[in-house]
């Protein structure tokens, strides 16, 4: 095997071909994707359930404080992970591509020790700085205690995915933890306990999840053949060269999802922050679907790019995009259409967020069509490009938020997030097309988008000038759903073979 080195600190291109055929690659990705999507349904429903309970069990001020505290917690967890979760998918996948996993243990050790130190430092920082943060200091402190467990959970499960095992992620992070959180919060609601208990029990399931994730990784590692063939290009220096920009990009990516809630809380108040968090909760459902599909594709994508198999990488990228569009476009179109009903589920305090819902739904339609562009860049080793893209998107969001939130409250924050979402997807899409020769617009993607538009958007556009009642709208949606399912079954072969669109 010949290898090339791209320069100081760069990433090697491995020329040994991967043994997996395109058909086997798609079947493997599909199995992982379907399992992850099933788990994603549980995660999404539990997430909406938690939001509903927070909106119903707590007053708007307390709900806003809870959402602000969870936003701070999420940012802290992201910083603590130091970006290694992507590296622990990327490097084991490269090792598998050349059949040399002899340095897997070293890879895991040099990632875990810094994460442990960072998690403890951030926990201490949040505890002592809680009074300086937006929202309620007691809620921030209650969540901070569980931050190391949350960070280790994600890092350990990322490693199992790098070894092509999706089951621990699906069972532990997609099903067990969200279900436990929801059940504990139902108990809090029924017992009438306060906000601090609500926050603490929301975070408690991270502890058993982290322990079980460690057990799953240990069991998986015991089955590996760690033969040494001197083929892998792994070194600690290259690991951190890949990881460093990803660490900053991961924080910026999480900031895109969380900082706006904190800014609304600081600039407009906790009640508007609660409304914004509730109105935008549907976005998380789509993000979970995208994450579930991406995680199943990531290891194979890294392997294909490691051996310069552009056709295989394109096939995976287009297929993954088609799946996400097939699942998410109906969701976003329906939420756009029925925004008042969606918000009414959470109570009368949140019914003024229709504009927020529709701005975000429109932006997410565009983002979904771009596919997992950030994952493609990362698995191609372009983590510095990723960092620049996310940094630009974050600056756009912060600028728009600072300008509009004082005037427009939650709607201003939604406008800022929508602008950032477009930047964070369209800019890397251009880079992927021009720099890597890949794009997500295969035949399956275009068919999935056309099906969703024809079955869900067109009927509502036809009815809109007539101002029909809800019964007529529901009938049109029901007919569209039947047609959509029928078309998906009839076209299943095309939808499952995204590469045929080339």
TrEMBL record:
UniProt cross-references to InterPro entries, sorted A to Z: MATE_fam (IPR002528), Poly_Biosynth_Transport (IPR050833)
Top-level taxonomic group: Bacteria
Gene Ontology CC: plasma membrane
Location within or outside the cell: Cell membrane
Keyword Cell membrane: yes
Transmembrane segments annotated in the record for this chain: 34-54, 66-91, 111-130, 142-163, 175-193, 262-284, 322-343, 355-377, 384-405, 411-433, 445-464, 470-489
Pfam families: MatE
First-listed, main subcellular location of the protein, grouped into a coarse class: membrane
Recorded topology in the membrane: Multi-pass membrane protein
Keyword annotations: Cell membrane, Membrane, Transmembrane, Transmembrane helix
Residue ranges of the region described as Disordered: 1-22
GO MF entry, a single one: xenobiotic transmembrane transporter activity
Keyword NAD in annotation: no
Name of this protein: Succinoglycan biosynthesis protein ExoP
Organism of origin: Dactylosporangium matsuzakiense
């Amino acid at each position: 095997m010949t290898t090339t080195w791209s320069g100081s600190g760069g990433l090697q291109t491995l020329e040994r071909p991967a043994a997996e055929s395109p058909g086997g690659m798609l079947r493997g990705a599909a199995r992982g994707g379907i399992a992850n999507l099933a788990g994603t349904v549980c995660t999404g429903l539990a997430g909406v359930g938690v939001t509903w309970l927070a909106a119903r069990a707590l007053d708007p001020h307390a709900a806003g404080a809870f959402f602000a505290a969870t936003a701070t917690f999420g940012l802290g967890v992201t910083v603590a992970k130091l970006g290694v979760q992507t590296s622990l998918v990327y490097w084991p996948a490269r090792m598998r591509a050349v059949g040399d996993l002899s340095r897997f243990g070293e890879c895991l050790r040099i990632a875990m020790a810094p994460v442990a130190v960072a998690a403890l430092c951030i926990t201490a920082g949040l505890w002592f700085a809680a009074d300086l943060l937006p929202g309620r200091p007691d809620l921030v402190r209650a969540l901070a205690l569980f931050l190391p467990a949350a960070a280790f959970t994600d890092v350990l499960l990322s490693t199992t995915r790098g070894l092509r095992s999706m089951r621990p992620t699906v069972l532990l992070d997609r099903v067990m933890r969200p279900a436990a959180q929801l059940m504990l919060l139902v108990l809090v609601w029924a017992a009438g306990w306060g906000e601090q208990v609500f926050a603490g029990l929301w975070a408690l399931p991270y502890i058993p999840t982290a322990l079980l994730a460690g057990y799953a990784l240990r069991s998986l590692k015991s089955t590996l053949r760690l033969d040494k063939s001197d083929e892998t290009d792994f070194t600690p220096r290259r690991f951190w060269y890949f990881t460093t920009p990803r660490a900053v990009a991961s924080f910026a990516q999480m900031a895109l999802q969380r900082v706006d809630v904190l800014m609304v809380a600081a600039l407009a108040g906790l009640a508007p922050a609660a409304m914004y968090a509730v109105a935008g909760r549907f976005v998380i459902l789509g993000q979970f679907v995208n994450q579930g599909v991406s995680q199943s594709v990531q290891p194979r994508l890294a392997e294909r790019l490691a051996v310069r198999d552009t056709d295989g990488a394109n096939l995976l990228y287009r297929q993954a995009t088609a799946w996400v569009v097939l699942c998410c476009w109906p969701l976003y179109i329906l939420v756009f259409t029925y925004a008042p009903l969606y918000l009414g589920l959470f109570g009368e305090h949140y019914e003024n967020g229709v504009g927020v819902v529709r701005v975000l739904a429109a932006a997410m339609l565009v983002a979904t069509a771009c596919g997992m562009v950030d994952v493609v860049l990362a698995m191609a080793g372009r983590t510095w490009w990723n960092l620049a893209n996310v940094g630009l998107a974050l600056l756009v969001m912060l600028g728009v938020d600072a300008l509009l939130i004082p005037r427009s409250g939650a709607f201003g924050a939604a406008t800022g997030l929508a602008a950032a979402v477009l930047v964070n997807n369209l800019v890397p899409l251009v880079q992927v097309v021009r720099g890597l020769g890949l794009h997500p617009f295969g035949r399956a993607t275009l068919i999935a988008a056309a099906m969703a538009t024809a079955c869900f958007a067109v009927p509502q556009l036809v009815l809109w000038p007539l101002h029909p009642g809800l019964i007529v709208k529901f009938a049109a949606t029901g007919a569209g759903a039947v047609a959509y399912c029928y078309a998906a079954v009839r076209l299943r072969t095309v939808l499952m073979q995204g590469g045929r669109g080339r």
